[in-house]
Structures are given as structure tokens and as C-alpha cells.
Design a protein that fits this description.
The protein is of the alpha+beta class and about 240 residues long. It has a seven-stranded mixed β-sheet with strand order 2-1-5-4-3-8-9, with helices on one face.
Amino acid sequence: MAHLPSKHPPDRLVPAETMAARRRPHFTGESEAYAEARMALLAEEIRLRRHAAAVAAQRRALPDGPAIEKDYRFIDPNGNEMGLRDMFGRHDTLITYFWMYGPDRLRPCPMCTNLLGPLDANAADLKERVALAILGRSSVERQIAFRTERGWHHLDFYQMVGDDFVIDTGGLDTGKGWEIPILAVFRKDAEGAVRLFWSDDIGFDMADPGQDPRGPVDLAPLWNLLDLTPGGRGTDWYPKLTY
């Protein structure tokens, strides 16, 4: 559904409980307890939707981020060296995702792979609005070989030249050698300078008790759908590359 602007300012929105009372059950036979609990939950879901929209608006209103002064270099899918600015193409916004597929890994991270599958399905649409680049420390040939194996068609993979970019964006713990997936958004300002717009700054030490570390927006449909089920995400299950 398109993100249409609200007809009312936030302080004049219909109260969530009033809106939830408009619920019309699709199935007969609800118990009174279920109906009451579902209506209370619906009010919270409406508040959650509104809060997510408010956070997105606050994100869009960020002032100019830091200018990117370093000349980070990458190898494009055709084997040519390029800079971060070149990835923008015809757009003024660039989304980058650093995935855990370093040269020392036999296979890519299953969690990153699980995210990139649905992202590939949406990449053609996304690239109508923004530029999109998947960045890895493995050779671009190795990344493309895995893309072919998975049947992906729309994602563009780039190899980092050196580790400066991934270190500066927090995607590599140089002490432990751990890779950390990083989502970052860059934009070109009116003067043509490349600036950081937003990156996922929620670190592992910010995870709530009993939860795996997760960002402010859970991009993976897998987890969002499991959140709708009685069992939820579980505590000891993770996706695999093969089953």
C-alpha cells in the first residue's frame, strides 16, 4: 500500500481505541475473551504503525550528515574499479548493505543470505527510486557465483578494495576478525558532496534481554512473518543455506 499522507496532524488523529472498535471479525465464533484481547491488541498495532511512521518522518528530517572525504574504492560487477560516488548512477540516494561473505568464509552468512533473497525480488523496484549496492570483502567473481547459485537476478555486488570502508562503517571488528552486517544510506547534496544520511547504529550491546541484536527496522520478511505466529521467532532457530 502506498504511503499516503495523513489527512490529520498527529494531535488530531482518531484515538487508537476508537479506531480499533471499528473491527469487524472475518470469522464467526469468537469468544468474548478473544474479542476483547484482539481489540486491545489492535489498538496497540495501530499505535505501533503510527509510531513507525513518526520515526520514519524523524529520520527523513535528519540534518546533513558527515561528508565522506575518503576515496573508498570498489570493484564493480564488470571488474572495473570505482568510487562510492560512482555507485549513485542517476540517483541522489544510495543504499549499501555489507554482507558477511569475507574471503575466509567457505560460504556466506545464512542470515545475510536470507535477507538478500527478498531484497533481490524488490531490487528492480527499489532502483527506480534509489541506487542499491551489496558490498562484500570476497572477490566480486565469488559473490556473483553465489548470486547465480541462488537464482538472484537484480542485485549488484561490489568487492571492497581494502577494508577501510567496512572498518569505518563498523562492519569489521579488527580485534576479533568478525564481520558485522551494516546497512547504510548515503546521499549527494545540492553541491554534489556525498554525505552519510543514516546508518544502523544499534550495536550488539544495545540488544534487549532475551533478544538477538536487531536494528530499528527489521528488513527480513522471515522474522516479520514469524512475529505473527503463536511460536514467534523462537530462541534457538536460524535459517540455513540448505535444508
